[in-house]
Amino acid sequence: MKVKVCGTTSVADAVLAAQAGADALGFIFAPVSRRLVTAQVAREAGIAAGPTVARVGVFLNQGLDEVLRTAEAARVSAVQVHGSLPGLYVRQLAAYYPVLRVVRPDELTQAAAEWRDHPGVTLMLDAPEPGGGVPLDWAALRADFPAGAWLAGGLGAGNVAQAIGALNPAGVDAVSRLEHLPGRKDPEAVRTFVGAARVAAGTGYPQ
């Protein structure tokens, strides 16, 4: 199972997450986000984190050309897309980068059927308001959660084990519960979240 720390806005926070054992960093390029980062900062932070940490560019309803330009400038290794996007858009994007396609609970069944046989697209289930810190009802989603999907939405050290136990996701992603302020990571929260996820997945050690 992979662990992603999203909303990274600085070199220092990228290094913190990498040292804590995160597999991936998320850099948000959606203009509406309080955690907006420039491509240059994301590139520098990704380099500082080291070559073993994946760098994910996060976008919301942005044009394909803009996404590709920003992803190249930031030197990301994958893209995560939110919003109302046609399947053709996602398939075109997947020709360039591995794609995390974010969906809400009411979209999950249809999205799972649509992307089941596309190796370049992985689903991520998130809350209706991403980054809001509100967890989903994992028990209610158990029957519909597809194998290989990622989970986000209000995750932190205090609940990630319960979420993993309920849904057995391929990856977990957190942002708001790992911060002092939007875009500013809490070092202890980052370390305990990564450690708790590792223990719950059976791949780590107690913090």
From TrEMBL:
Keyword list (alphabetical) reads: Amino-acid biosynthesis, Aromatic amino acid biosynthesis, Isomerase, Tryptophan biosynthesis
Top-level taxon of origin: Bacteria
**Domain (N-(5'phosphoribosyl) anthranilate isomerase (PRAI)) ranges:** 3-194
Query: What is an example of a Pfam family matching this protein?
Result: PRAI
Q: What reaction does this catalyse?
A: N-(5-phospho-beta-D-ribosyl)anthranilate = 1-(2-carboxyphenylamino)-1-deoxy-D-ribulose 5-phosphate
Q: Name one GO molecular function term.
A: isomerase activity
**Protein name, entry field:** N-(5'-phosphoribosyl)anthranilate isomerase
